[in-house]
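TA notes, week 10

Several of you asked for a full example with nothing omitted. So below is the full record: structure tokens for the whole chain, then the designed sequence directly under it. When grading your own attempts, check the secondary structure regions first.
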């Protein structure tokens, strides 16, 4: 069995509410030491090495699952916000080893292969930005088939959420459907 779980970062050494409930269950003294013997697991902790208890919940979880008989697919991964590539500096190689381990245990059916990481998929939607003064003219000139299943939206909010000097421009965008909106 392959199982997964997620917790959130919540400070120096807390795992968050979801993790806490799960952790309390795992710490029950009446659990047989082989209760998880049919389980395979992988743990990847999100942390910051500037904290004293760096990735403490992930370390505790990894050890406790092993104590209860579960088998680790790969060594525990410890992300560090201080890594020069951020979390990705350790996540990407860890995920690579995890996929190798999973595929060894659960090979793909004949005729299927892994999609290469650099594959770009076609978009599931298309955005066309219009200036307000061009809106009427452009909309009148569009053929009906060009806007099939389409609708017009108004940008209500477009705020940068990353610092101006950050290398990525991440934005919070809110759109309002103003015309023909059958939103799925």
């Amino acid at each position: 069995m392959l199982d997964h779980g997620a917790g959130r970062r919540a400070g120096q050494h807390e795992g968050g509410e979801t993790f806490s409930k799960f952790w309390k269950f795992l710490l029950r003294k009446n659990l047989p030491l082989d209760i998880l013997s049919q389980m395979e697991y992988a743990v990847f902790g999100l942390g910051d090495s500037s904290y004293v208890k760096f990735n403490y919940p992930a370390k505790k979880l990894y050890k406790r699952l092993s104590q209860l008989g579960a088998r680790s697919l790969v060594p525990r991964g410890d992300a560090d916000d201080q890594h020069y590539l951020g979390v990705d500096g350790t996540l990407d190689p860890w995920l690579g080893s995890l996929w190798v381990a999973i595929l060894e245990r659960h090979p793909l059916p004949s005729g299927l292969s892994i999609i290469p990481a650099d594959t770009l998929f076609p978009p599931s939607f298309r955005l066309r930005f219009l200036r307000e003064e061009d809106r009427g003219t452009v909309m009148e000139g569009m053929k009906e088939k060009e806007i099939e299943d389409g609708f017009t939206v108004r940008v209500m909010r477009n705020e940068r959420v990353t610092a101006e000097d950050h290398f990525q421009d991440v934005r919070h965008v809110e759109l309002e459907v103003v015309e023909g909106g059958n939103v799925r």
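The mean pLDDT is 80. Use that as a sanity check on your answer.
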